[in-house]
Design goal:
Length: 102
């Protein structure tokens, strides 16, 4: 599958079954993560930033104290692509490694 081809509705439904905690909101993959502190949330964001930079694919995100909200879409493709799914999968893996996550 081409990384810059938007997923079909059926493909997206299948992805969401496998992608724990994510949903489609405003035509983007969307998830919020809650941590025990701002420092833990910021550490998580730093880890995600390194992965995103290595992929050349960057999230839209928002942080308030211990809450990190992430939206993923591939702007060049005009929708959610395999790149977003790959990044979401890696983000979930990073979140699991954060023992302090609430």
């Amino acid at each position: 599958m081409n990384h810059l081809t938007p997923l079909t509705e059926h493909e997206l439904e299948q992805v969401l079954i496998q992608l724990d905690g994510w949903e489609v909101k405003d035509e983007k993959l969307h998830r919020s993560f809650e941590f025990n502190s701002f420092v833990e949330a910021f550490g998580f964001m730093s880890s995600v930033a390194l992965v995103a930079e290595s992929m050349g694919h960057h999230p839209e995100w928002f942080n308030v104290y211990n809450l990190v909200t992430i939206d993923l879409t591939t702007h060049d493709a005009g929708g959610i692509t395999e790149m977003d799914v790959e990044l979401a999968t890696q983000i979930n893996t990073l979140a699991l490694g954060k023992a302090g996550m609430a």
